[in-house]
Amino acid sequence: MEQVSYTLDASEQPTHWYNIVADLPTPPPPPLHPATQQPVGPDDLAALFPPELIAQEVSGERYIEIPDAVREVYAQYRPSPLIRARRWEEKLGTSARIYVKYEGVSPAGSHKTNTSVPQVYYNALNGVTRLTTETGAGQWGTALAYACSLFGLGCEVWQVGASFDSKPQRRTLIEVFGGTVHRSPSRMTEAGKAFAEDHPGSLGIAISEAVELAAQAPEAKYALGSVLNHVLLHQTVIGEEAVRQLAKAGESGADLVVGCAGGGSNLAGLAFPFLREKLAGNQSPRLLAVEPSSCPTLTRGEYRYDFGDTAGLTPLMKMYTLGHDFVPSPIHAGGLRYHGMAPLISHVVHEGLMEATALHQNECFAAAIEFARTQGIVPAPESSHALAQVRREALAAAETGAEPVIVVGLSGHGLLELGAYDSYLSGHLEDDPLSEDAVAAAMARLPQIG
Ligand SMILES: Cc1ncc(COP(=O)(O)O)c(C=O)c1O
Predict the structure, then answer these.
(1) What is the rounded CA–CA span in Å between residue 20 and residue 276?
(2) Residue of 143, 104, 56 whose CA lies nearest to 375
(3) What is the tens place of the pLDDT at every residue in 383-394?
(4) Longest dimension (CA), the chain
(5) Dihedral angle of Cα 388, 389, 394, 398, to the nearest 10 degrees
(6) Does a structural domain hold residue 52?
(7) What is the spatial distance between Cα 351 and Cα 360, in angstroms, rounded to a whole number?
C-alpha cells in the first residue's frame, strides 16, 4: 500500500525554533515608538510582554531552544502529519504532487497552540496570573485558554463581534478551557466605547481592548496570536517538521509552498524554514501568501509604518497595511480580517522573496468542499484560501503536464465553522469586492512616517 502520511520519530523532532532574521539578506525595519519615532526598546514592551518574549522579538540568533516544558506539550500532538493528498490530486486530474501540512490535530484545532503554549509558559515563569487577548475566528482564543489552563493562568478574550455573534460554540469552547469571553467592541474599555455596541468589530479594535486592560493591570499581560516576530518564531516548528517529512516522502524539495495569511503566522511558520533552504541554495520553492479579496493587505495595501491596532496603542510597525482603522467586511474567515501583516512577512514580500495573491470566499469554500469530500478533512475557512490557490496551481499543472511538488499549510479544521459551510451550501455566501474608495479612505488616515 502506498504511504500517504508522514510523521517523525521523537529523535527527529525539532528542538529549536528557527529565526529567519539571521539569514535575511537585509534586516527588517525596526518597530518605532509613536511619540519619538525612534526604535522601541525592551522597556517600551515590558508592560505587555515577559522578558523572554521581548528577547525573542528582537533576537538575531538563528536558532532558539524550545524549553522542555513546551516540548512536552508539543509532544501531545506534534509532529502534525504531512499528508499526500492523493485523492484530491486524482479528483483534480493533476500531475502535481500535493502535500498538506495539517495543523488541525492540535488540542485547540489549529496552529495557534504552537505559540500559545510558549507564550503562557514564559508568562507563568514571570509570575503573571492573567492574560488578555483578542480573537478573530476564535481559534487563537481557544488555543490561549487551553495553554492558560495548563499553566494555571486566567485568560480573558475579546472576540470580534461578527465572530462572537455567528459562532456561539467557539465561545463555549473557550469557556470549556477556562477562558472568559467578551464581545468586542465591549463597554469595558475606552477603545471599545468609541464604537456602537452592535458594531461588527475588527481584530484591530479587539487588540486595542485587550492591550488597554493589560497595560492597566499589574498582574496581567497581553498575548498576541499572530503578527509579532516571536509568534512567527514559535510557528516555525511547522516548517521544520515539513522540511524533514518531505525528505521522508522521498522528495528532494518543494517547488511551491502556499499558506493563507491573516497576520502571517501559519504561513511564516511553514514557509521560513523552506526560505532558509532556498537562501542556502538547497531548494528553490516559490513561496506564496493567499489572502481574502475583502482584506487584501499584501496585494492592495501599502508598505509603510502603521499601528497594529485600531486605537493606536501599539508601536508603529513597518508592514503592508490597509490602514489601522480599516474594518473589513464580515467574511467567514474571521482570522484573515486583519488590516496589517506581520512585519517579517511584509519584509520578505517587499524584498521579492515571497509572492502574494487574493481570492474571494466563494472560490475558497468550493475548494474546501472538494477537499473535504476527497480527503475527509473539513478545513477552517482561513485555510480554504490556501487550498483554493493550490487548486488553481494543480489545474494549471494538469494543463502543462508539469509535476510540481506543492506543500500547503492546512492551518486548522473547520468543524466549528459549519454555519459558514451552511451559508455556502445554501447559496447565501456573498463575495465582497473591496472598492478603491474604501481602501483610499483608510489609507488617508495613516500616520505619516517612513
Ligand atoms: C485556522 C486559522 N488559520 C489562519 C489564521 C490566520 O492567522 P495567521 O495568518 O497568523 O496564521 C487563523 C487566525 O485566526 C486561523 O484561525
Answers:
(1) 7
(2) 104
(3) 999 999 999 999
(4) 64
(5) 100
(6) no
(7) 26
- Residue 116 Cβ inside 6 Å of ligand 1? The answer reads no
Any idea how long the chain is?
Answer: 450
Asked whether 19 lines ligand 1 (CB < 6 A), one says no
pLDDT, one tens digit per residue, over 402-448 is: 999 999 999 999 999 999 999 999 999 888 778 888 888 888 888 77
From the DSSP assignment, how many helices (H) and strands (E) are in the chain? 18, 15
Which structural domain range is residue 244 located in? 68-109+229-444
Distance, CA of 408 to chain centre: 14
Q: Rounded CA gap, 275 and 352, in Å? A: 12
Q: Which of 80, 103, 106, 110 to mutate to test the pocket of ligand 1 (most atoms within 8 A of CB)?
A: 110
With a 6 Å cutoff on the Cβ, whether 357 touches ligand 1 is no
Count: domains in the chain = 1
| Residue from 102, 106, 112 whose mutation best tests the ligand 1 pocket (most atoms within 8 A of CB) | 112
Q: Is 263 in the pocket of ligand 1 (CB under 6 A)?
A: yes
106 lines ligand 1 (CB under 6 A): no
Q: Which residue has the cell 451550501?
A: 425
Asked, for residue 262, whether it belongs to a domain, the answer is yes
Q: How far apart are the first and last CA of the chain?
A: 57
Q: Report pLDDT for 50.
A: 94
Q: Is residue 354 part of a domain?
A: yes
**Ranges of residues in the chain whose predicted pLDDT is under 50:** none
CATH of residue 410: 3.40.50.1100
Question: Taking the C-alpha atoms of 380, 385, 388 and 390 in order, what is their torsion angle to the nearest 10 degrees?
Answer: -100
The shares of helix, strand and coil residues in the chain, as percent rounded to the nearest 5, are 45, 20, 40
Is the residue at 2 inside a domain? Answer: no
449 Cα to the center of ligand 1, angstroms: 29
CA 124–ligand 1 middle distance (angstroms): 25
Cell, residue 259: 499558506
Question: Exposed, middle or buried, 376 (CB in 10 Å: 0-12/13-18/19+)?
Answer: exposed
List C-alpha distances in Å: 43 to 46, 48, 299, 441.
Answer: 5, 10, 34, 34
Residue identifier of the C-alpha nearest atom 6 of ligand 1: 262
Could you tell me the distance, in angstroms and rounded to a whole number, from the CA of residue 416 to the centre of ligand 1? 14
CA 434–ligand 1 middle distance (angstroms): 21
Cα 262 to middle of ligand 1, angstroms: 6
- The C-alpha R_g of the chain, in whole angstroms, comes to 20
